[in-house]
Amino acid sequence: MTKPVYRRVLLKLGGEALSGPQGFGIDPQRAEAVAAKVQQVRDLGVQVAVVIGAGNLWRGREGIQRGMERATADYMGMIGTVMNSLALMDALERAGVVTRVMSAVEMRAVAEPYIRRRAMRHLEKERVVIMGGGTGNPYFSTDTAAALRAMEVGAEIVIKATKVDGVYESDPEKDPQARRFDRLTYIDALNRQLQVMDSTMISLCMDHNLPILVLDLWQPDSLVRAVLGEPVGTVIAR
Q1: Separation of alpha carbons 135 and 127, rounded Å
Q2: Among 188, 187, 182, which residue's Cα sits nearest to residue 234?
Q3: Which of 80, 147, 157, 158 is least surrounded, with the fewest CB atoms within 10 Å of its CB?
Q4: ∠ at Cα 31 (114, 144), nearest 5°?
Q5: Residue 84: which CATH number?
Q6: 120 neighbors 147 (Cβ within 8 angstroms)
Q7: Distance CA 103, CA 146 (A)
Q8: Which pLDDT tens digit goes with each residue over 95-134?
C-alpha cells in the first residue's frame, strides 16, 4: 500500500458534518460516519488533530442580526464546538480510537484545557485530538482556529472537509457550469474572496506557508486519498 505523504494533519470540519438530513443538531449516525473516516486516516499511521465548528447548533450571525452582542454570540458558538467535539469523541472511542478533547474555553469537567505541548504529546501517542472552543477569543472563526492550531502542533497541512469537492469560481449549486480549481495560490484565493473559508485563515496560512486542501468529506475515501498524496479537491498554497 502507498505510504502517507503526511505525518501529521489537521482536519477542519464544519458542525454540519454531524447534523442529519434536517441540517441541524447532532445525528449519532453521522457522528459515527465521520468517526469512521477519521479512523481510516489514523489507521494509516497519520497523526490526526481535529477542529470542528458549531453551525449545526448555533450561528452567531443570526443572534447578531437580532441585536446580540458579537462577543456573546461568539462565546455561545465556542461552547457549541465543545458539544460537537464530545459527540465526535464518543463515536471515535466506541470505534476503538483513543481520543482526547481539549478546549480553549476551560471546561475541566468535560475536556482538558488546550495546552500546546500536551496536545503534541497526545498526537505522538497516536491519539486523535479534537480541539474545541475555537481560539478561546471572540471575533475569530473556527477556520482561523484551525490554521492557528495546525501551526502550533506542527501539522503539515490543513484539510478543510466540506460537502463540495473543492473550490469553484462560483457557487456550483447555482451555476452548474462553474469551473473547479485544482490549485490556487493564497493570493488568488484572497483576491477571489472565496466564501468557502475565512480570509484570515488564508492569510495566516500564507504567512507561514501552510497548505490548505479543500475536499468533499463524503466522497468515498477522499480523506485517505488526500493523505496518500492522490489528487483530490483543491490545494491552496504558494
Answers
A1: 21
A2: 182
A3: 157
A4: 40
A5: 3.40.1160.10
A6: no
A7: 13
A8: 999 999 999 999 999 999 999 999 999 999 999 999 999 9
